Amino acid sequence: MALHSLLQNPEFQVIALLTTVTEGFDRISMHGVRRELLYRQAECIDLPVEEVVIPPQCVNAIYESRMAEAVLRFRDRGVKHFGFGDIFLRDLRKYREEKLMHESMTALFPLWDTDTQELAWRFVEQGFRAITVCVDPSKLDKSFVGRELNSAFFQELPAGVDPCGENGEFHTFVHDGPIFRTPVRVRTGEVAERDSFVFCDLLPDEQGETLCATK
Questions:
Q1: Is residue 153 part of a domain?
Q2: What is the pTM of this model?
């Protein structure tokens, strides 16, 4: 939804997506989504992906060093802003702003201070579709992993769980919506518990001929 907002803003031109991938696993860090699906998602949005590859159990010093390298690569291409989907975690916002400020860059937060219940319903109304790929079982029952983020999902969330998972209750893979040229076809696979989190593996949907139609 943050990307959707930036794409609609005539003041900015979005040129790429940026994410961390854990080396040796070929998966998006924290989310556990396969690298193949990351690239299919980007292809269906018509944007390239820049990877920041980090080791498993990455310490903060390595994370910051590799992120800084990626930021400098973009700065050398004339990029001045980085957009984030953060909504209300002020310490995290301050951290991002300070790190980018060191490189003369600016952080953008298009969803900032928007009511998360409102965002959740807007997500459904605008036609976005997502599946929970990671749940913190200390904050949300593991039965919520692998579920579609539809009206029933949001209605059944327990009190105290943020509708957008802003406190780390859950993470998702968005596979369709107004920013997608065509949906990413996926199906749920094995559910596994690892490092105190519950993950649902997403697999390419073998039923379809393609995951994303090409132009």
A1: yes
A2: 0.91
Is 46 part of any domain?
yes
Structure tokens at 10: 């005539």
The pLDDT of residue 215 is above 60: no
pLDDT, one tens digit per residue, over 73-82 is 999 999 999 9
Q: What is the pLDDT of residues 133-149, one digit of tens each?
A: 999 999 999 999 999 99
Which residue range is the domain that position 151 belongs to? 2-204
Domain count within the chain: 1
First to last CA, the chain: 24
What average pLDDT score do residues 12-26 get?
94
Let me know: does 111 contact 85? Beta carbons within 8 Å.
yes
Say if 98 falls within a structural domain: yes
93 contacts 85 by C-beta, under 8 angstroms: no
